[in-house]
């Protein structure tokens, strides 16, 4: 039986925490930041978490955790 490989794209975007939650980064913080409010940008710094409905899909891409 061959080894199951992790999807490279998922490896770069998600991290599984010890609690079992999956952390992700928020979008809209790359360029053209001058027109956005400072408090909005500060909120985008904080990590987001994957919804329970998407957990199965992401874990299929990350078989080795």
Overview of the molecule:
The protein has 65 residues and is an alpha+beta fold. The protein has a single domain (8-61), classed as Factor Xa Inhibitor (Irregular). The protein has helices at residues 8-13, 38-45, 52-61, and strands at 14-16, 22-24, 48-49. The protein has a three-stranded antiparallel β-sheet. A hairpin with a 5-residue loop joins strand 1 (14-16) and strand 2. The longest helix is centred in the C-terminal third of the chain and has 10 residues, at 52-61. The relative contact order is 0.27.
Secondary-structure map:
Blueprint: H1 8-13, E1 14-16, E2 22-24, H2 38-45, E3 48-49, H3 52-61
Antiparallel strand pairs: 1-2, 2-3
Task: Write down the overall mean pLDDT.
Answer: 95
Strand content: 5-15%
Estimated radius of gyration:
15 Å
Helix percentage: 25-40%
H/E series: HEEHEH
| Widest sheet: strand ordering | 1-2-3
What are the segments in which pLDDT stays under 50 over at least 5 consecutive residues?
Answer: none
Helix and strand content put the structural class at alpha+beta
* Termini separation: 19 Å
Shape: elongated
What is the overall number of helices? 3
- Which CATH architecture would you pick? Irregular
Number of domains: 1
Can you summarize the main beta sheet? 3 strands, antiparallel
Question: How would you sum up this structure in a few lines?
Answer:
By secondary structure, the chain is an alpha+beta fold. The chain is built from three helices and three strands, in the order αββαβα.
List keywords for this structure.
single chain; 65 residues; alpha+beta; Factor Xa Inhibitor; three-stranded antiparallel β-sheet; 3 strands
């Amino acid at each position: 039986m061959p080894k199951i490989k992790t999807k490279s794209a998922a490896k770069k975007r998600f991290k599984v925490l010890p609690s079992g939650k999956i952390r992700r980064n928020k979008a809209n913080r790359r360029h053209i930041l001058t027109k956005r409010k400072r408090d909005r940008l500060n909120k985008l710094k904080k990590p987001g978490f994957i919804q329970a409905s998407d957990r199965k899909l992401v874990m299929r891409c990350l078989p080795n955790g």
